[in-house]
Amino acid sequence: MSLYKKHDTTINKAVQALHDRTFYAAFPEHPAPAVYGETADADGQAKFKASLGKKFEELKQANPEGWAGQEESPYLQEPLKISYPMFSVKTLIDRSQTAFHQWRKVSVHDRAGILMESLERVKGRFFEIAYATMHTTGQGYMMAFQASGPHAADRALEAIAAGYEELQRFPNRALWDKPMGKFNIQLNKEWRPVPKGISVVIGCSTFPTWNSVTGIYGSLITGNTVIVKPHPGAILPIAIFVAEIQNVLAENNLDTNAVQLGVDTFDRMITKELAEHPAVKLIDYTGNSAFGSYLEALPGKVVFTEKTGVNSVILDSAEDIDKVAANLAFALTLYSGQMCTAPQNFYIPASGIKTAAGNVSFEEFATKFTDNVTGLVDNPKAGPFVLGAIQSKKTCDRVVEAETLPGKVLLKSRKIDNPMFKNARIATPVVIEMDAAKKDTFSKELFGPIALLIKTKNTDESIQLAKEMAMNHGAISCGAYTTDPAVREKIADEMSLAATPVSFNLTGGIYMNQNAAFSDFHVTGGNPAGNASFTNPEYVSKRFTWVGHREPVKA
Amino acid sequence: MSLYKKHDTTINKAVQALHDRTFYAAFPEHPAPAVYGETADADGQAKFKASLGKKFEELKQANPEGWAGQEESPYLQEPLKISYPMFSVKTLIDRSQTAFHQWRKVSVHDRAGILMESLERVKGRFFEIAYATMHTTGQGYMMAFQASGPHAADRALEAIAAGYEELQRFPNRALWDKPMGKFNIQLNKEWRPVPKGISVVIGCSTFPTWNSVTGIYGSLITGNTVIVKPHPGAILPIAIFVAEIQNVLAENNLDTNAVQLGVDTFDRMITKELAEHPAVKLIDYTGNSAFGSYLEALPGKVVFTEKTGVNSVILDSAEDIDKVAANLAFALTLYSGQMCTAPQNFYIPASGIKTAAGNVSFEEFATKFTDNVTGLVDNPKAGPFVLGAIQSKKTCDRVVEAETLPGKVLLKSRKIDNPMFKNARIATPVVIEMDAAKKDTFSKELFGPIALLIKTKNTDESIQLAKEMAMNHGAISCGAYTTDPAVREKIADEMSLAATPVSFNLTGGIYMNQNAAFSDFHVTGGNPAGNASFTNPEYVSKRFTWVGHREPVKA
Question: What mean pLDDT do residues A488-512 have?
Fold first, then answer.
């Protein structure tokens, strides 16, 4: 068996990076632009196009019980007509159980090597994955490449490293030697990290790899077998990851069913049947809150969720309000507000925002903000690429309905032209002014490019509302602008109690939506937006059980 | 504020001991007999006696809303007539919330110092706690001293050390410096371990300190405030711990309500009201499975349970069967089978047990085992002290009922004399032979001195039954006797999958019931006997949330 010793240095650096939380300290070579080869983009695009209308035959899952696939491109508004092998839940579980008893006995070092080798293989397919992601999620090309490719691989590596460390947290063996006065009691003790069993990873339609690889790699490194249940609308990107893991397993003569793709269709979803199966012990999920809460309540399962939240921006004071407006307009527009970290509720004191250049009124800021949105979406070199396309038709409906919310429409949603995809499903942001009294309206996620500018009495009320939203309805991100250190600490402290990370005073090329692997804990697990965090120690430690055995030392 | 720098070395050694898992490597001085002073025992007994019939006025909890107490000595079968201050759930919660916002801001170093100082103070009261434990739980004097005193303190220190390490797992601050080609994005990042809020620790009647201090100290070190809800039948031992923590808090001018005792009475239990209160975020529980499962299902709470299980002994082969019989007879008799780790189901092949001296038949072993039990309980220098007394009358009823179970009564339960306490509630072990087909009967915990010798087809069936019991009904311990390495590994592997630690081939002065702090994970959290483990990293990491904030470095 190949042990992939070539990855030893990387895994050790990755464990170090978990603790540094800077990433670039452990991987100084990483900021250098990765070289994928001159033809990599064109080759990837060609490979993606060649897969359209065909069977996806890369998976090493024998004897499909059918073939199906219902993906549709938000850019083309046409089906991709790719079909995937289909298996009954019984087949998936049976195969997973068989593979489990082999995979659990592979050493942690070999598991790490195999999984890291799979990431190495996936690296060669980043462009193909990028096009697959664009044409399933509607993400712009840049985001589709980064989020589904290198950034997802970073998150996967982070989960491998976290598991690798946690599995070795305690010794395999130790001599317990207790002096009892006239004699010693000596026991040979051993501790085994025992995987839980079968893990089901349920994907979402907007980030099919980034949000799923942590669960897949986190479960695999800890010795569990995995059934990946992708969203029926976004299969291909994660299917490529699964195929590459299976390739490496096969090369090592291991049962490729250690990870399986379990595809279903919109009309016959298998998620509940899978999740409720007694053999399934671990469930990872990204998606709506109702289904997430149902999963969390299933007895006898360890469940990791990323659900929905209401992300707030607290505007108190700023050095340069124009830079603030530009930054927030971009944060809202990026992938048309379809990121779980996108801002929704902007709290602005009725008295305005204090700045170095004097007070900026609510109305003045609103104008600057909507002007920036309009300027961005109407910039032909930026707008279509930043917006991307709308993944689900329901989001378009929600944007239209938003104009009927109890407030003043400051900016209507429009359709703009995407020069490359004339049929792209597009909706530019809608911006609505709302009073802080309309809490019922802004107390829920309005998924998509929808921004509410909420007029508050003062910053204290803004903080109170942002905290309340996070505690009661969840939050994954929060933006805050203040030049006052006391206000800053108050926001930091209060939002901490609501388990919500705050990005302070972001301007320029960094946005509250972005979460970096090995540094930002994505979702904290401490509020209703989700019960897990990428990747804290609990994210991997809950996937196995420490069991100790002991026996007297032979005299 | 006193920072208790004198404890710095100890906490660092304790963190080391967590990883060594030998304890005595980090604390080589510890095996030396602790010196408590010549009069310590008599002083402690006197202090205990002086507390009888009086108000317990040590707690720094102002304005009691009443006084009550219903403890009763299993040795005297008389009420202790100690009364404790009573508070409404509202008062307890309000005070805890106020204290929370101070306690959470005390640094982890200072929290560790304060908590370790409280253990130092408790050390001076070990004998008093021992008598309090005897006369609430019925434990023998030796166990009452060790389990409620030094061993509980070790477990508390272990929880402090685990929290101390976990809270410092990631840096408080770091510079995230991402080269972007022509410029760098530089963010100052900070990470805060944010406590969850109010923690309720629900005690049990048999181990009122050992089973509760881990939750108390685990929650306090991680910045949560704690309400201790003792079992109405076993309050005094843990009340002394709470009083000593409050003393140290007061000396540091901290709100003593960071830890409160919330006493109730059998006729008006406040446990549900406390547990369901929205401000309560953490619940630690030791007790019956039905209530534990109710707690685990409460939404929005992090719950740590130790419930009940069916502990098995697998008898395959042995060097010296007499030593095995003696060891197991002691394990069953110790504290009259009222330990959560006591053996219940003994699986013996119908063909007997292979030994160095030839085959020992089922019947021969049964005779040796019952003879050893009888010899032990009838030894006036050992029997009464090993047996202790029966905590609850219900246990006596269960022992009587056991004789009607579908099997052959090999040894009847009796009452023996305790020379020191003629009214002691005593029941010696009952031993019943049962066929492996009577699974319905032996598939549940029969709490108390009840042993079932179950005749199996062979060792494979024994293993299968032990595993099935553990997976379906929970198990906290398992004993196994085999001289065959292949059988040993099969047992180790199969019981690992049922998340049950196995003690192999114990003879002499060490028993499967015993679990040592800093070495044995007590309850694994991986089977229905409980969802938590003393003290794995998860046991403390679930008590707080990592929240990261970030801000661009000022140019």
Answer: 97
